[in-house]
Design brief:
Layout (H helix, E strand, L loop, with lengths): L1 E9 L4 E3 L4 E3 L3 H5 L8 E11 L6 H15 L6 E5 L5 H10 L7 E4 L12 H14 L5 E5 L2 E4 L4 E2 L8 E2 L7 E4 L2 E4 L2 E2 L17 E5 L7 H8 L4 E6 L7 H12 L3 E6 L15 H6 L3 E2 L5 H14 L3 H11 L8 E2 L8
Helix pairs in contact: 3-8, 8-9
Length: about 350
């Protein structure tokens, strides 16, 4: 069915016991040796790095992004599978998706149980990711996990330990995997891909600040004092905070700092309903609502806008483009969805 390149980055799927806990140390060949190959699929391996995903930095993620583009420059490659730790998989997948304009799939997967576990989920997830990479087209970047296919945008880790680790709490999955095939249920419209960013000497700082009872602007302003060029405000409810936070947002926006507004609630969009420091005031102060994107992916959206240009107005435009029509999750359901 195809020639698939597996990019190995570490995570639980590559983890072994270290004496006090598990950590990634296996290479891609060792991980790949655990999984059955779908019929007709040939695999090549790129050992990019092997780290626990909470240790990933923007530099790691940009290296992964450039590697994906380099691999797809070969027209003989039919698709890519990225093995990745589950803790920050949603962020890396979304970053790659924002810059992906090729019909060939990039499929992220991983595991909740370590390499060599007798009941491990890694081999099955890797097999399913290879099958998805070999038999689908035009879905963008996706996550294949526990027999399901999810879009990169909006999908987050919803379970710390259970095998069914990923979902979009505000939307449906793209498809199911089973009986040797991928059944694609829907498509989403995606915003035009961003150009591949340059690799900066120092990545822009983007911080996340969560609102709570008794919260003031101290941590928000501390992020600015530390040099943050972007801040994600993780608000309550449909995107609400306080008048003091709204004042801090206005001051940050006047300095050219990008502020994105999301919510700590699991599902549903940020919506301008309330004043007295609610989303009405926060958006008026310059915060950009992120639809149904949650904190980690909202941060990636801000980071991508900062990497795209140094002009503050253009950065705002790029952020709004990234969050535009695709954030609405508009669906198409043609009869012959993604089978090739």
């Amino acid at each position: 069915m195809g020639r698939i390149v597996v990019i190995s980055t570490g995570g639980t799927i590559a983890s072994r016991w270290q004496g006090s806990g598990f950590a990634a140390d296996a290479n891609g060949g060792e991980v790949m040796a655990t999984a059955p190959l779908p019929e007709g699929v040939s695999v090549e391996i790129v050992d990019l790095f092997s780290v626990n995903s909470p240790r990933l930095t923007t530099r790691h993620q940009l290296t992964l992004l450039r590697t994906v583009h380099e691999v797809l420059a070969d027209p003989g490659v039919d698709g890519i599978v990225v093995t990745h730790g589950t803790d920050t998989l949603e962020e890396s997948a979304f970053l790659v998706d924002l810059h992906h304009d090729d019909p060939r799939p990039v499929v992220f997967t991983g595991a909740q149980l370590p390499l060599g576990a007798t009941d491990g989920d890694g081999p099955g997830n890797l097999h399913d990711a290879l099958l998805t990479a070999a038999t689908t087209r035009g879905l963008g970047v996706v996550i294949a996990f526990d027999g399901k296919v999810h879009p990169a945008r909006g999908t987050v880790k919803t379970q710390t330990l259970a095998p069914d680790a990923f979902a979009d709490p505000s939307g449906a999955r793209l498809g199911n995997i089973g009986f040797g095939r991928v059944s694609v249920l829907r498509r989403t419209l995606r915003s035009a891909a961003l150009p591949l960013p340059a690799a900066p000497e120092t990545a822009p700082r983007v911080d996340m600040i969560m609102h709570h009872c008794d919260a003031d602007a101290l941590l928000f302003n501390a992020a600015l004092d530390a040099g943050a060029q972007g801040v994600v405000l993780v608000a309550t409810g449909a995107g609400n905070a306080t008048p003091e936070i709204a004042e801090a947002v206005a001051a940050a926006a006047s300095r050219g700092v990008l502020v994105a507004l999301t919510t700590r609630v699991q599902a549903g969009p940020v919506t301008e309903i309330y004043t007295h420091g609610g989303a009405v005031d926060l958006v008026a102060a310059g915060a950009v609502p992120t639809g149904t994107l949650r904190a980690g992916q909202a941060r990636i959206a801000v980071l991508s806008a900062l990497l795209a240009t140094t002009d503050p107005r253009e950065r705002d435009r790029v952020l709004r483009h990234v969050l535009g029509e695709a954030a609405a999750g508009i669906e198409a359901r043609p009869a012959d969805l993604a089978r090739v």
